[in-house]
């Protein structure tokens, strides 16, 4: 078994490394497991907690505590059953969402106001840059972004790899005088933005950033973007790999955007201010 296979069922690099290490051992203490799996000691308990939630690892009642891998056959059967139930629930919720969108659109008789875009399996060369440029070029005043907790570091390789592109795109919006408000769960976007801003020598532009860009930290299950209080962007999730998106739906409906803006403002009050400078 290798890490690539485990990644396909939702385990990140650290979780895969710890689990594969435990499969080779009867049981181990956390400190020794950290060394053997090459997972930092500061991360090992978080990783073990995640594996326990997956029911892939169990804690033995000893002092100090020892950890062992659950029998893979039974563990993966249970994991598959849970994933199946979660997928069915997600599909049900997705259908309800699209049904609600359809009902809202039927009210004003404008089904042409919904556009769906599907992503390639991998972005090549400047594809991601060009896509963001096309999405952002028509923004006139403000963009409000809510980033799902699944985009915390290590949970989505594709997102982590594209962070630099998103950071530069948001700063480009600020250069155009666009207000940028981001609710982030603590993803790699935060250090990426901070690093870019620290490298800027133009003090007047840094002051501009302070006026136009605000980021707050909040772990949330919500995931949407609002543009100019007119357009709502919703991700289309891969139901068999929730860390990956298949594409995006753009909804050109001010009443719909207003509802999401109300939710954004509610979440915004709960966020913790992140200092960009």
Automatic annotation (TrEMBL):
Residue ranges constituting the Transcription regulator TrmB N-terminal domain according to the UniProt record: 6-73
DUF7436 domain location: 114-270
Protein name, UniProt field: TrmB family transcriptional regulator
Native species: Methanosarcina acetivorans
